[in-house]
Design brief:
It contains 7 helices and 21 strands. Helices cover about 15% and strands about 25% of the residues. The chain has 2 domains: about 170 residues, Immunoglobulin-like (Sandwich), CATH 2.60.40.650; about 210 residues, Sulfite Oxidase, Chain A, domain 2, CATH 3.90.420. The chain is elongated, with a radius of gyration of 23 Å. A 5-stranded mixed beta sheet has the order 3-1-12-7-8. By secondary structure, it is of the alpha+beta class. Bound molecules: the ligand Nc1nc2c(c(=O)[nH]1)N[C@H]1C(S)=C(S)[C@@H](COP(=O)(O)O)O[C@H]1N2 and molybdenum atom.
Length: about 425
């Protein structure tokens, strides 16, 4: 399993996910190869997300008084919002300012009841996949709920000379552990039609956001990879510095990248028997450019065949065959009790169906049954084709803007 060295994945979650996938495949076999594979629940339970967390100790492992001191309990959680005073002539002449800062010193920092109260009139709910820029496997998909950043910033009155908004979580009070991210003023304040706002989430899948998923409150940036969605949120500061000084910019990542439209392939068996159907399955994320379809290409290989480059002529030629994308589910079965799909962002307020499929910045499962393979070794690749008709990974083979290489399942037919 590939991993991001700087951000180790929680082993427990991975083992569990693999076990679930294996169980689902076994079930499909027992009811016959024609049954449709469904290896992933549509919403991922909070504990089953793959965890990507920095810090020593990881903030979500704190307990008792340490948790209280970190202000990571519902009663002790506070959010400070300040202006940073940054100037750097000649390009940054005046510092950003806020009419009202929210600070611990003044006793004005925002607490959780006040945020939830704001949510009574302002809350938003939507479905979003969490995807690390550096890990080629979706981490999970949730129904997130909270208050748009815009409405929280309005608590500070007039703002001036604000070009970016930065935010940080709890990092053991150690400056070297700080993990911060940012959005531009416009991204925070204005949401294009059909798009989704940046918001401060305090609920996931109908329940209070767990500590492991970044609770009591985390930022969610719909269009971005996970590094923009800072967990254990404690500070927001506005600045006139126009640069994107995100922590994730440090390792050659593109900090302004958008979530990629990309197909990810599940692990499959290494061997199947002649006459048996090869069952391909995986998940497709609907990124910036949407999803038109998912396709697969199967090729026969020798024992020592070399890996193909993403632009190898034979790979581009295919033939690429369409996969089956799962249909929109019966939402009353998938959503937490009491959640009305007509009230979700990105859903039609009359029909209660998602306006796009998969949901924008969400994901769905796909599958294909490949039959009639003769004995030999095979490789199967899957790719997404976006709404512009561009096949992944065109036009962006640069993997530090988001891992979306063509994934391969290799097996032998015996
Ligand atoms: N405070 C904090 N927030 C964070 C991180 C972190 O290490 N610390 N990791 C980020 C990264 S790189 C990713 S991919 C996502 C992962 O979210 P998850 O653990 O809920 O799956 O959280 C982001 N938010
Ligand atoms: Mo990440």
């Amino acid at each position: 399993m590939p991993s991001d060295k700087a951000l180790p994945i929680n082993r427990r979650s991975f083992v569990r996910q693999t076990a679930i996938a294996a169980g689902a495949v076994a079930m499909v076999k027992s009811v016959g190869a024609e049954a449709l594979a469904r290896t992933h629940p549509f919403l991922t339970p909070a504990d089953d997300f793959n965890d990507v967390s920095r810090g020593r100790p990881k903030p979500h492992t704190l307990q008792g008084q340490a948790l209280v001191d970190a202000r990571l309990t519902p009663d002790t959680w506070r959010l400070e919002i300040t202006a940073d005073g940054f100037v750097e002539p000649p390009s940054v002449k005046r510092p950003a300012s806020l009419e009202r800062s929210l600070t611990l010193d003044q006793g004005s920092a925002l607490d959780l009841p006040s945020l939830i109260e704001l949510g009574r009139t302002r809350s938003v709910k939507y479905i979003k996949a969490m995807q690390c820029l550096n890990i080629p496997t979706p981490l999970g998909q949730g129904l997130w709920e909270g208050v748009p950043l815009r409405d929280v910033l309005r608590l500070c009155g007039r703002m001036d000379n604000v070009r970016r908004i930065y935010y940080r979580g709890f990092h053991n009070n150690d400056p070297r552990q700080v993990f911060q991210s940012s959005v531009s003023y416009t991204q925070a304040m204005e949401t294009p039609p059909g798009e989704l706002p940046v918001f401060l989430a305090y609920r996931l899948n109908g329940e209070a956001l767990t500590l492991e998923r970044g609770g009591p409150v985390r930022m969610i940036v719909p269009w971005a990879h996970g590094f923009k969605s800072i967990k254990w949120l404690r500070n927001i500061y506005v600045t006139n510095d126009h640069r994107t000084n995100d922590t994730y910019a440090d390792n050659n990542n593109d900090p302004e990248s958008r979530l990629k439209t990309a197909a990810y392939v599940d692990d499959g068996p290494k061997r199947i028997r002649v006459g048996e159907t090869a069952l391909l399955s995986g998940r497709v994320i609907s990124g910036l450019s949407g999803v038109r379809r998912v396709e697969y290409w199967v090729r026969k290989v020798g024992k020592d065949s070399e890996m193909l480059e993403y632009d190898a002529p034979e790979l581009l030629l295919g033939p690429w065959v369409p996969c089956d994308l799962e249909a929109q589910p019966d939402w009353s079965e998938v959503l937490p009790e009491g959640v009305n799909p007509r009230r979700l962002l990105g859903f039609d307020s009359k029909s209660g169906l998602s306006l796009s499929w998969p949901p924008r910045y969400g994901m769905a499962s796909y599958s294909a049954r490949i039959k009639g393979l003769k004995a030999g070794r095979y490789e199967v690749r899957a790719r997404a084709v976006d709404l512009n008709g561009h096949a992944q990974p065109e036009p962006r083979p640069y993997q530090k803007s988001g891992k979306n290489a063509l994934q391969v399942w290799r097996f032998e037919v015996v």
